[in-house]
């Protein structure tokens, strides 16, 4: 998270975050809340990425890259001193929080090996997930995929009889679907691009979108 000490309206803050980072800040869990407060440096109210439109149901939405909420009239801010959230008029000018997830969704269908090579050549590698927060960040990318799954860098080794992240991260977090863990040669993990975003082992010659570390 990045605290930006410039006073802007919610829409102006959204544009700034999308130009410089990924988007206005989102919060998935209490770990995010703690990190957001730490980045606030004990400042007062600042915009985050939650806003509502003026449709009949006044539904609240997180700001999503590529989605414009033109007809919104109120949004949420966080008080950096107390950690409390409150809504306010979007036109008011306040500091704001941006986030940068350091991830990129590649909307091309490739085999697992092809996806691995692409991420290594063009970015920092195929994504791995080691905690709930990282699961949330990858889900946020996966929801925009054009395939039913997105490749992760988790693969099964017949020789060692275990699942391993290709970048040697420990397998300390898992989100398998109930029937999705098939341990067999030539298997890698695809995350569902909708629903519960669970992990399902796939034949590594299937072709899906994938997520890279930037």
What is this structure's SSE topology?
Layout: E1 2-8, H1 10-20, E2 23-24, H2 30-40, E3 45-53, E4 60-62, E5 72-79, E6 85-89, E7 94-99, E8 103-110, H3 112-122, E9 125-126, H4 132-142, E10 149-157, E11 162-165, E12 187-192, E13 199-203, E14 208-213
Protein model, in words:
- With 214 residues, the chain is an alpha+beta fold.
- It folds into 2 domains: 2-99, Mannose-Binding Protein A, Chain A; 103-213, Mannose-Binding Protein A, Chain A (Roll).
- The chain has 4 helices and 14 strands.
- It has helices spanning 10-20, 30-40, 112-122, 132-142, and strands at 2-8, 23-24, 45-53, 60-62, 72-79, 85-89, 94-99, 103-110, 125-126, 149-157, 162-165, 187-192, 199-203, 208-213.
- The strands form 3 sheets. Strands 8, 9, 10, 11, 12, 13 and 14 form a 7-stranded mixed sheet that branches. A 4-stranded antiparallel sheet has the order 4-3-5-6, covered by helices on one side.
- The longest helix has 11 residues, at 10-20.
- The radius of gyration is 19 Å and the shape is elongated.
- The model is unreliable at 66-72 (pLDDT under 50).
- Residues 1-99, 98-213 form the C-type lectin domain.
- This is C-type lectin domain-containing protein.
Which descriptors apply to this entry?
214 residues; four-stranded antiparallel beta sheet; seven-stranded mixed beta sheet; alpha+beta; Mannose-Binding Protein A, Chain A; 14 strands
């Amino acid at each position: 998270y990045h605290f930006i000490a410039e006073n802007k309206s919610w829409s102006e803050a959204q544009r700034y975050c999308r130009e410089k980072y990924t988007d206005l800040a989102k919060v998935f869990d209490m770990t995010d809340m703690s990190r957001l407060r730490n980045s606030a440096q004990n400042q007062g109210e600042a915009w985050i990425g939650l806003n509502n439109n003026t449709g009949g149901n006044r539904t609240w939405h997180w700001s999503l890259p590529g989605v414009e909420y033109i007809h919104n009239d109120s949004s949420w801010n966080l008080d950096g001193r107390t950690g409390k959230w409150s809504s306010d008029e979007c036109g008011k000018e306040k500091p704001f929080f941006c986030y940068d997830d350091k991830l990129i969704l590649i909307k091309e269908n490739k085999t697992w090996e092809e996806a691995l090579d692409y991420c290594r050549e063009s970015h920092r590698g195929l994504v791995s997930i080691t905690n709930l927060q990282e699961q949330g960040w990858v889900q946020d990318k996966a929801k925009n995929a054009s395939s039913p799954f997105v490749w992760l860098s988790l693969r099964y080794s017949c020789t060692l009889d275990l699942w391993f992240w290709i970048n040697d991260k420990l397998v300390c977090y898992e989100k398998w679907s109930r029937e999705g863990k098939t341990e067999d040669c030539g298997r890698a993990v695809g995350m569902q691009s909708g629903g519960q975003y669970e992990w399902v082992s796939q034949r590594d010659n299937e072709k899906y979108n994938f997520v890279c570390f930037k």
